[in-house]
Amino acid sequence: MATKVLMPQLGESVTEGTISKWLVNVGDTVKKYDSLAEVTTDKVNAEVPSTVSGRVTEIVVPEGETVAVGTLILYIEESGAEGSAATPVSTTEIPVPQAPATEQPKAATPAVSIQQAPIADGPKQRYSPAVVMLSQQHGIDLSRVVGTGAGGRITRKDVQAIIDAGGQKPAETVKETVAQAPVAAVEPSTVAPTPAPSAPPSTPAAPVDIPVASGDQVVPVTSIRRTIANRMVQSKHEAPHAWTMVEVDVTNLVNFRNQAKGEFAKKEGLNLTFLPFFIKAVVEALKEYPMINSTWAHDKIIVKKDINISIAVATEDALYVPVIKHADQKSILGIAKAVDDLAARTRAGKLTMDDMTGGTFTVNNTGSFGSVLSQPIINAPQAAILSVESIVKRPVVINDMIAVRSMVNLCMSLDHRVLDGLICGRFLQSVKQKLENVGPDTKLY
Amino acid sequence: MAVISFIDAITMAMREEMRRDSNVFILGEDVGVRGGVFRATNGLIEEFGEERVIDTPLAESAIVGVGIGAAAYGMRPIAEIQFADFIMPAVNQIVSEAAKMRYRSNNDWHCPITIRAPFGGGVHGALYHSQSVEAMFTNTPGLKVVAPSTPYDAKGLLKAAIRDEDPVLFFEHKRCYRLIKGEVPEDDYVLPIGKADVKREGTDITVISYGLTLHFCLQAAEKLAQEGISAHVLDLRTLYPLDKEAIVEAASKTGKVLIVHEDNKEGGVGGEVAAIVAEHCLFDLDAPIKRLCGPDVPAMPYSPPMEKYFMLNPEKVLEAMRELANF
């Protein structure tokens, strides 16, 4: 029996994946759980494991092609079974309803029809009378709604949820909000399975045709680039950003770190950088001001119990924000190790889905490339982000005398729906105080 | 408040009405000395005597016909048809005489008869003891058709039927008799005929049923709640005339409607319910109206596996409800 292998859902809001590399060829024998292909998705690189043991009979999606979750990508002839081609879909990996475009398994040439379902076109959507009625009454653009019904159908409840949440947002934010709404106690398999309508959300109207002159280089937009673009647009559209900054005298911190780093490196095999100190101070301050560690959920604000710090890690062509889970339970050493591990795995392209999710607040180390001032964009749906700028020596006035001190700017962008200046000011003062009090008594372990 | 079985609620209703009104009497096969084959009239001949609890010959046309005559004379007969399957010889009396008496006589006469009939399968009764015949009577104006699903409703509606000035056909699902128990007040209460009842509030799907299958729906709804699916369950209680207002309200609430009954699908009560929803709720509908019913085969099979195949059960209902919720 030839088993169909489908593009798996590698994360709850992931709707499509790119086959970056096939690890098998037609005719290869594979065992169950053997890796079949490398897949790049919006959020993560992953390998697709085989759901059965057998022989690869047909590769349907060529390398480099991006297809919707649930799309047929290859056939495996199960070992010990001979037979015809059209057979049940393997269900172990993919409990996700198929996209409407792929919903006719009885079609004579399934492979062809699936390949001909490019993301941009999307399948024709059919709407129930209730959905049409509600969307017209409330001015909702259904093309920007992602359905949770069978095959991605937009249900009356989907539309009602948007209306209840105060109507449609100007940008393409509906998908995320619907999928992430904590009240959505829907079966996992019914949440946002729709691959098709994920047409680039950053194109609100008809895309303007920008001319390419001769000699210009056209760089195709990768999946991760598009995700960055979408998420930045979403955050800026949705969250009214306010910005504030404090300057912190970290002379004591610099002295302490310089004195401790030699032994630390010897003992732990790890460079003691400044970042863990900043993260530690932020985490301690978050405990004092839990409201900062929260998220806007339309009709309520959800204050997160866990303190999971997203850190921005840049590679040559992209930016990732892996997460230090339960940072409040870690020492400076623990944070240092986590940062080191995440940074290393980011550069190796080995981040898992779990590494990328669950962040509640972001610390961005812009100082690492020499910046002294930045206006970070909030890592939605978090409520705030803090960037740590370069530590620079500057003359400052202390007790009416001029002294040369190591100074650093801490910049913070906040979602003004959730937070106001006062609480953020207090939070930053708390961070500042903690950093300025670092000294010989500070515990690294 | 005592928890009693469905059949005890039936008996209680008749006993109370017979005590309240000396015009009320029972007639039917084996209702007297035997106390009814299902024991619905158990103990009544002892209390009210053989003139008010009358054993009749095996002739349903006579049971209903005599009842109609007595009703015309001012009595309030409760005619028991031993199994609803046996009602066919009395259809002429019910449909052409009882149901039309008020209309035909220009309001001079009326016919306050209650005809009780146990219906439905699942008791290994095969062809002659399992049929659901309600749909044959649900387009007869002048007749009211009632089918309660709980002991509380059974008592309140049977008392209402006995007091009704016109003929009421009262169907009791025989599988409910001893399977379904519930709290029933000992005091005198009646429930309005023609009113459906919301048995469970929900927001995702609307399930409309009656009789035994209503309990399957409630059990399935309970399980689905654990999956995060919230089902709204409407018990029709009266099958003719239907409570259109309640049906429209329940259907509009979720826009996804499943109608469940044991009777055959084609031409069943569910078709009329679906038509009401289609007529009034188009712009609230979010999914095709679904029916889950007995298959369109001539009879309830005797073979246990086949009977099981014919009968609905909570699992079948759950599957249909989940599918609709996911649509």
UniProtKB/TrEMBL annotation, chain A:
Ranges for the Peripheral subunit-binding (PSBD) domain?
A: 126-163
One Pfam family name from the record? 2-oxoacid_dh
EC number of the protein: 2.3.1.-
Domain (Lipoyl-binding): residue spans on this chain: 2-77
User: What keywords would UniProt list here?
Assistant: Acyltransferase, Lipoyl, Transferase
Needed cofactors, names only, are: (R)-lipoate
CDD domains from the UniProt entry? lipoyl_domain
GO annotations of cellular component type? cytoplasm
Q: Which InterPro entries match?
A: 2-oxoA_DH_lipoyl-BS, 2-oxoacid_DH_actylTfrase, 2-oxoacid_DH_E2_comp, Biotin_lipoyl, CAT-like_dom_sf, E3-bd_dom_sf, PSBD, Single_hybrid_motif
Official protein name in the record: Dihydrolipoamide acetyltransferase component of pyruvate dehydrogenase complex
UniProt family annotation? Belongs to the 2-oxoacid dehydrogenase family.
- Which source organism? Brevibacillus fortis
Superkingdom of the source?
A: Bacteria
Entry GO MF terms:
acetyltransferase activity; lipoic acid binding
From TrEMBL, chain B:
Q: Which GO terms describe its molecular function?
A: oxidoreductase activity
- Record InterPro entries: THDP-binding (IPR029061), Transketo_C/PFOR_II (IPR009014), Transketolase-like_Pyr-bd (IPR005475), Transketolase_C (IPR033248)
Q: Which Gene3D superfamilies match?
A: 3.40.50.920, 3.40.50.970
Query: Which keywords are on file for this protein?
Result: Oxidoreductase, Thiamine pyrophosphate
Which prosthetic group or cofactor does it need?
Answer: thiamine diphosphate
What does the record list as coiled-coil region(s)?
A: none
Task: Please verify whether the record's keywords include Oxidoreductase.
Answer: yes
Record Pfam families: Transket_pyr (PF02779), Transketolase_C (PF02780)
Which residue numbers delimit the Transketolase-like pyrimidine-binding domain?
4-179
UniProt-listed PANTHER family: PYRUVATE DEHYDROGENASE E1 COMPONENT BETA SUBUNIT, PYRUVATE DEHYDROGENASE E1 COMPONENT SUBUNIT BETA
NCBIfam families according to UniProt: PRK09212.1 (NF006667)
Name by which UniProt lists this protein: Alpha-ketoacid dehydrogenase subunit beta
